[in-house]
Amino acid sequence: MSIILALLIFSLIVIVHELGHFLLAKFNGVTVTEFSLGMGPRIISTVKGGTRYSWKLLPFGGSCMMLGEDMEETGEGSFGSKSVWARISVIAAGPVFNFILAYVLSIFIISSVGYDLPVVLSVTEGYAAEQAGIQPGDRITGINGKKIHLYREVSNYNMFHQEEFRKGTPVEIRYLHEGETRVAELVPADNGSGRYILGIGGNSNYRTKGNSLDILKYSAYEVKYWIDLTFSSLKMLFQGKLTLNDMSGPVGVVDMIGETYEESKSDGAFYVWLNMLNMAILLTANLGVMNLLPIPALDGGRLVFLIVEALRRKRMDPETEGKIHFAGLMALMLLMVVVLFNDVRKIFL
Question: Cα torsion at 254, 257, 259, 260 (round to 10°)?
Fold first, then answer.
């Protein structure tokens, strides 16, 4: 069952990503030669309006192949014949559609179970929050200049800043107390287990339901939360605080989806549905961010070349650009092999 759920989630995310490229290509008059779900040999294929639509054997990945996308071709309908801004819109559309999908799915979740306001439910005796006068019922609105909208943002700030906490660096907390904005500087302290805390207690499962405008607003905050989480994780990876062993590829994600399904099914189909939506939001937001990284072969790498072209008003040499993207693709394939090996190894440990 976990494999079926994973395939459904992956397929949805990939289709939406490639649909972004497809729609903007069509809008800008670029000829799309093939739009496919999956990789490898075609299982089902049909041609309509000059575009081949295919479902391929290997159930991961997908593509939106455009005329002249990876070669020096400027004929009618080719990718290279369009203005640089048209090409930028086509390439950026994939990740943007991933974020749009995350937002739409968030609306379903927020309208069903509400959102986790950053409300203080308790303060730990003897720690900085209590000493500063923060009380249950107060609402955190900012931490060190970062606006806070969800309680999970408070929890994640603590998790991602333990190094600064251990140094005793004061943390500026902005909060609402009976409608009045207050500011306090809290010094983290060891809770006895090596983890440094501020003494603020809350619960991300403590949910609030709002009106239609609240649902739309907090759905946007939900997407922002997952994007911020992805960037924070990448930052820790580049800083050496995370390793490749902490990364998960397709096998690891399938395993995670399976575990989530097993933990949820005893609560009923409704909670299985919600948790699968949460997984889809996490993955589509993650894919959107990763694709925007300035790495050759990814959408972000292509955008770098297009932005440079827009600034210098001269196109990069297509052959040189193609070689760079090919090298980036080979590096990404090698990374995927390493991550896949780690995924399989972790399953059998």
Answer: 180
pTM of the model as a whole: 0.87
Q: Which two three-digit tokens encode residue 265?
A: 């099914």
3-class secondary structure, 286 = helix
d(CA 2, CA 260): 9
Mean pLDDT over 261-283 rounds to 82
What is the rounded distance in angstroms from the CA atom of residue 137 to the CA atom of residue 151? 13
Cβ neighbors of 294 (< 8 A, separation 6 or more) are 300, 301, 303, 304
* Residue 318's pLDDT band (cuts 50, 70, 90): confident
Q: What domains appear along the chain, each with residue ranges and CATH number?
A: 2-112+279-348 (no CATH), 116-206 (2.30.42.10)
- At 249, list the tokens: 């590829």
Residue 105's nearest CA partner among 28, 9, 196 is 9
Structure tokens at 64: 């939106």
What long-range pairs does 175-178 form, CB within 8 A, spacing at least 24?
A: 175/120, 175/134, 175/138, 175/139, 175/140, 175/141, 175/142, 176/138, 176/139, 176/141, 177/133, 177/134, 177/135, 177/138
**Active-site residues: which are they?**
18
Please determine, for residue 348, whether its predicted confidence score (pLDDT) is greater than 70. no
Mean pLDDT of 7-21: 89
Q: Is 37 helix (H, G, I), strand (E, B) or coil?
A: strand
Token pair belonging to 234:
């990448």
- CA-CA distances (angstroms) from residue 227 to 101, 179, 233? 13, 30, 10
Instruction: Fill in the amino acid letter for 290.
Output: M
Give first-to-last CA distance, the chain, whole Å. Answer: 22
Distance CA 62, CA 260 (A): 25
Q: Please, which pLDDT band fits residue 73 given cuts at 50, 70 and 90?
A: low
> How confident is the model at residue 11, as a pLDDT?
85
Tokens encoding 12: 């949805």
pLDDT of residue 90: 96
For the residues 133-152, what does the mean pLDDT come to? Answer: 95
